Amino acid sequence: MKSVVTLKLKMRKNPALLQTMEVYSKAVAYIAEQGYTNKISNRYQLHHLCYYRAKQQFHLPSQFIINANRVASQTLRSVKKSKGRQPLFKAYLPLDFDKRTFTFSFDKVRLTTIEGRMDIPLDIPEYYWRYLDWSWQTAQVMMQHEQLFIHITFTRNIPSVANDGKTVGIDLGIRHLVVASDKRFFSSKQVKKKRIMFKRLKAKLQAKCTKSAKQLLRKISGREQRFIAWVNHNVSKEIISTAEPGDKIVLENLKGIRRKRLGKNINFWLHGWSFYQLQNFITYKATIKGIQVVKVNPCYTSQICSHCISLGSRTGNFFRCTQCGYSLNADLNASINLAKRGSMSDSVLVAVNQPYISGDDSKATRVSSYRTADELRDNVPSGTLSTLVLE
Ligand SMILES: [Zn+2]
């Protein structure tokens, strides 16, 4: 089952983009005029007649000329059907983008314009963060009441079925954001670097105390939150990617985690990074896929040997068992312990289908399942999603 969602987002007016829309609209009008006077409405004939001339005249990227030709042909056909007059067009027609002309990342889109590729920042409402890891497909930029909007379509495959399978423990930490017991390590290096950058930027702005500095500070905080959500989405996606329906994922119960691992830097790291959010993303993604998730008490998971359950010692990154001499990466040892503990317990079932996103997400109704289009449509706040199709 494939689900498709279209997000409608406000966009700042970018001069190059506006100019592209304007020229594109002129190109559509030109092609339509040519077709009308030559009595041609067929797309291929129209292309043959107009492509090179339009390309020379408007200097648009070829993809837009092809789009303009398509729109002109559609309009001419409906004019022909209704025996109408020569069609007129608005100054800013909706402009279509596909994978050749646009890319999306968590806080911006890169669009092909008449002046080359442009990065345009996007402010994505929290309610939409859950779609950030779906795969983006196409986009359409349009002008509505003097405001610029972008519609971006995202798709995702939703599988069904559930059975019994393997158990994977997920250890969250400092050196690695995540270590999975099936020997997958997710480094926190890049993320730390970026967070330090945000921290410095914020400190600088906090020292300034002006109104504009405060505004910028709020903006940057928002950016940082979205960055965290974006990383959490990608990490959780990666974790779930190798799990099959019927498998079990074991998470640590995070209560008391700050006491478990002391240190000022560590607290900054734990406090600022939303491990709860990461766990919730993992949980809702797993649940959709038919994977069970349990939470266990992480007590002693980093001190005992995953091989013989005796106490061991940790030096830096390494764990060494004092009893059997088994030695391995300390976080991996902890994650294996978590997996073992989780495979024995099924009492603490987590039955959340949706990620909990802090902030004003409470406004958004929780969607109980992704199964049917009607369910989704009924549960989505009105006016936020423009289209919603399930195939
Ligand atoms: Zn041992």
Descriptive key words:
391 residues; alpha+beta; five-stranded antiparallel sheet; five-stranded mixed sheet; 10 helices; elongated; disordered C terminus; binds zinc ion
Secondary-structure map:
Layout: E1 2-11, H1 15-38, H2 43-58, H3 62-82, E2 95-97, E3 102-105, E4 108-113, E5 116-121, E6 135-144, E7 147-157, E8 167-172, E9 176-180, E10 184-187, H4 189-208, H5 211-241, E11 248-252, H6 257-260, H7 264-272, H8 275-289, E12 292-296, E13 312-315, E14 318-321, E15 327-329, H9 330-344, H10 373-379, E16 385-390
Parallel strand pairs: 8-11, 11-12
Antiparallel strand pairs: 1-7, 1-16, 2-6, 3-4, 4-5, 6-7, 8-9, 9-10, 13-14, 14-15
Bound molecules: zinc ion.
